[in-house]
Amino acid sequence: MISRTDTILSVRELRTEFRGGRGNVRVLDDISFDVGRGRIVGLVGESGSGKSMTALSLMGLVPRPQGQVSAKSILLDGTDLATLSPDGMRRIRGNEISMVFQEPMTSLNPVRRIWDQVGEPLAVHHGLGRRAIRDRVLEMFELVGIPEPKARLEAYPHELSGGLRQRAMIAMGLICEPKLLIADEPTTALDVTTQSQILKLMLDLRDRVGTAIIMITHDLGIIAEMCDEVNVMYAGQIVEQADVFDLFERPSHPYTRGLLASIPKAGAARATKRMPSIPGMVPNLAKLPPGCRFGPRCGDAMPVCEQPPGLAGLGRGHVARCWLHASSPATCAEGAAS
Amino acid sequence: MLIFVIRRLAVSIPVLIGITAILFVMLNVVPGDPVALMMKEHASADVIERLRAQMHLDDPLITRYLRFLWDALHGDLGMSIKLNRSVTSLILTAFPATLLLAGCAAAVSWIVGIPAGILSAVRRDSLLDNFFMGFSLLGVSMPIFWSALLMQYIFALKLKWLPVSGFYGWKYLILPAVVLGWSSAGVIARLTRSSLLEVMRHDYIRTARAKGLREVRVISRHALKNALIPVVTIMAIQVATLLSGAVITEAIFGIPGVGRISVNAIQSRDMPLLQGSVLFATALVILGNLIADILYSVLDPRIRSEMKRDV
Amino acid sequence: MSMPVESVIVGSTPETIEEASFLGDSLRAFRRNRMAMAGLAFVVLLVLSTIFVPWISPHDPYRVALDEQLLPASATYWLGTDNFGRDVLTRILYGARISLVVGIVPSLLSLMIGTVLGILSGYFGGRTDFTVMRLADMMIAFPSLLLAMVVMYTLGANLLNIFLALALVGWAGVARVVRAQTLALKQKEFIEAAHAGGTSRPTIMLRHIFPNVVPTLIVLFSLSIPEAIMWESSLSFLGVGVQPPEASWGLLVAKGKEYLFQAPLVAISPGIAILLTVLAFNFIGDGLRDALDPSMKD
Question: How confident is the prediction along chain A (338 residues), in pLDDT tens digits per residue?
């Protein structure tokens, strides 16, 4: 089963559904993507597009029994996570894949000391003792650039600033040297200066430790700065997938174009001119339009958009889920829907 | 820490003084002559006169209050009219029984209430949860005097497992402690459950799960300490509830405690004794509040550092 | 750099529509709550039967029949008879009158006192707040039963004084909740707008703050009724509440306990009446709380 390739994570046909009082709601539909060894892959989209749900599904953290995750395969360095038992998945979690969350303020336990929380994965997955854990946490604190690391070990979360807490969270995520780190909007809750410091740290760590990163964000600026490849998500689907340069050079899905157009240009008179934005609202996942999910908001909608589009290949691994490109033959159709 | 305790004490003292004032006014502005009321028709005019002088009843109210306060500070709560003994010694003789009863009841409520609450939260909406919550709802909704009678009837009169009433050994303590503890256990179980469910929604629980911890460890190491902080603080309210309940429990099971003293004092219209025993109980409640506050700050590092900053 | 897409989604509903649907939603949420509806049905049934008991029951609650003492339950006496040969069920239904009145009147009193003091305290703050809240602290530090007992001792044991004693016990809790809500409301824009518009302070308190605490008051009211019933029955049980020949449930249990061995039903059944009534009101209260003010949960 073990096949050492350059791909560390390969997700195929990931579906997540939630059981509700009025039937099931499919919050993720047909998610397929790869993450290369040591690469940073972005998931970008509005809130509700399913990017955080993708992360939780990969981590096995979707609340059960309401949430049901299924996939053709989720290969993490050759191990298929989709076939693992809950306990098998638990052993992977925090050890081979770990996650950094959006809110450093609330993601740490207020009544336990920092070193104890940051080092806990070592106790659970490697059975290390207190002494060894403390030493390792100290090393990690130095690695993630926490000033006065020794003094911070005994601190409680509320005694640290937001930026320091997020550094501690990253230290926690990397402490077992995972193959993959998922960062879910790691800088959204931070102020701008701290934001860029944390992003720089993550780039730096990727280069030094070699951990692959899935970067979840709604900010295309962060994507441009950080990522090697991008997946644009809309209403529970990946609508466009491309190399980062390619995506910015030739955005192909009307939704991606809309996103790019809505980035305010530096120097533009923000106060006077209304920023262009995508008209309409994100659809309710329980009442999706029958055809293209973006159809009702799309300026380029055609009669054929009443039918669900598949992923259309545009060359160089660039795909878009849109009828505009359906004439070109699919080159990356592995995950293409009917 | 010490400074915090002292400061917290300083806040309690005015409350205690205020309470003595309210109590004193309520008991001393009885319409009609209190001594005549106390003695009914049995006493001669001369005895009444002597008692009035002894109790300084002809002085203005404020003077009497200040004297009462001064004496109370020295541990002197006056003389019981009916029993002709000092109120302080009567209360101190009765207190161990009340302390034992309330202590056992509190133990029952914690030992039963907290695990029941935790299990209910973990197995939310299960049969077990419904069973525990039903039982605790029953505990909160039953008047203590009635559940006491019911237990007496079943376990003492019918099954003859335990003595009906009296206070001659640990066997006599079981029924009263269970009766008194049940209602508190209900409150504690419900609070523990809702508090744990609330904590389990927090982001740091998701973080703990993301680390690959077993669910047992997520609950025991990450959720429980946070969830029990509010549970600890209701200890203060529990002291008041247990003392109210002890009044009834002691009366029914014939336990010679402070609660029974106050009921007897009312029935025999023994004003100083009533005043003393109520004051004593209230001081205990304030002490309970103080202890709960201190525990709270010990458990929650956020409060602890706030205190440091304030001082 | 962030996308402004989310701002497009934000919409606002006019307040009038929100209010109308709030009431409708609450009513619907309450109706869906089966326990609350069962509680309501029980209370309605109880109220009706206490009103019509003279016509329903063939027995006189005060008639003494010494040859029919402590009879067991039978077709004639559904719950047996007491030591004076009186029908226990009829006595319970008459007793319900007192227990229900004692549940409602003191709760209304403590609600009124607590609301006025709570709004004043929260709105004016400063010295008013300090005085009221320290007073409330003191009331809460008293063990409730002992405080009520002291009041009954001083004023004498009768129904009116029970009202006063229980109101005195209950107001402080109401005042604390109302004060907290007033403090929160004071920060809201519509209060500040009213201020800026020159509305007088009494008007603001009466027209703007009070209506917003009403849902909470309804919940507090429904939850304080069972509490008052419990306290009254405890007082009466101890002999400092309702006096014979009147009979509240607590007194019935107290009188019946002498005959616990011969005729357990005499003491046990009024207690069941208390238990069921308290449960019913608690269910109603929980239902109202969930329907009107989910934030108050615990």
Answer: 444 458 899 999 999 998 877 778 889 988 999 999 889 999 998 888 888 999 999 999 888 778 889 999 999 988 999 899 989 999 999 999 999 998 888 899 998 999 999 999 999 999 899 999 999 999 999 888 899 999 999 999 989 988 899 999 999 998 998 999 999 988 888 888 888 888 988 898 888 888 999 999 988 889 998 999 999 999 899 999 999 999 999 898 989 988 888 776 655 444 445 556 777 777 788 888 888 888 888 888 888 888 888 888 888 889 999 888 876 444 444 444 33
User: Tell me, which fold does domain C29-53+80-296 have in CATH?
Assistant: MetI-like fold (1.10.3720)
- CA–CA gap between residue B132 and residue B189 (Å, rounded): 8
Question: What is the rounded CA–CA span in Å between residue A165 and residue A152?
Answer: 11
Q: How many C-beta atoms surround the C-beta of residue A197 within 10 A?
A: 16
Give the tokens for residue A77: 């360095």
In a domain, A248, yes or no: yes
Residue A279 lies in a domain: no
**CB distance from C93 to chain B under 8 Å?**
no
CA distances from B192 to B62, B90, B188, B295, C272 (A): 46, 38, 6, 17, 28
Cα–Cα distances in Å, from B201 out to A39, A172, B208, B303?
Answer: 33, 21, 12, 22
Amino acid sitting at position C95 = G
Q: A229-234 and A40-44 as β-strands: parallel, antiparallel, unpaired?
A: parallel
In a domain, A309, yes or no: no
A98 and B226: CB-CB below 8 Å? no
**How many helices (DSSP H) and strands (DSSP E) are in chain B?**
14, 0
Burial of C34 (0-12, 13-18, 19+ CB in 10 A): exposed
Rounded Cα–Cα distance for residues B217 and B229 (Å): 18
Return the percent helix, strand and coil in chain B, to nearest 5.
80, 0, 20
ipTM for the whole predicted complex goes beyond 0.85:
no
DSSP string, B250-284: HHHHT--SHHHHHHHHHHTT-HHHHHHHHHHHHHH
Per the CB < 8 A criterion, the answer to whether C25 and A66 are in contact is: no
Give the 3-state secondary structure of residue A19.
strand
Asked if the structure places residue A259 within a domain, the reply is yes
Nearest to A61 among B206, B222, B229 (CB): B206
Give the other-Cβ count within 10 Å of C105's Cβ.
18
Cross-chain Cβ contact C138/B247 below 8 Å = no
Q: What is the CATH number of the domain that holds A160?
A: 3.40.50.300
Give the B window 166-195 contacts with C, CB below 8 Å: 190-191, 194-195
Split into its structural domains, chain A has a count of 1
pTM: 0.81
Residue numbers of the domain that contains A159: 4-265+298-304+319-337
Looking at chain A, which residue has its C-alpha nearest residue C11?
A281
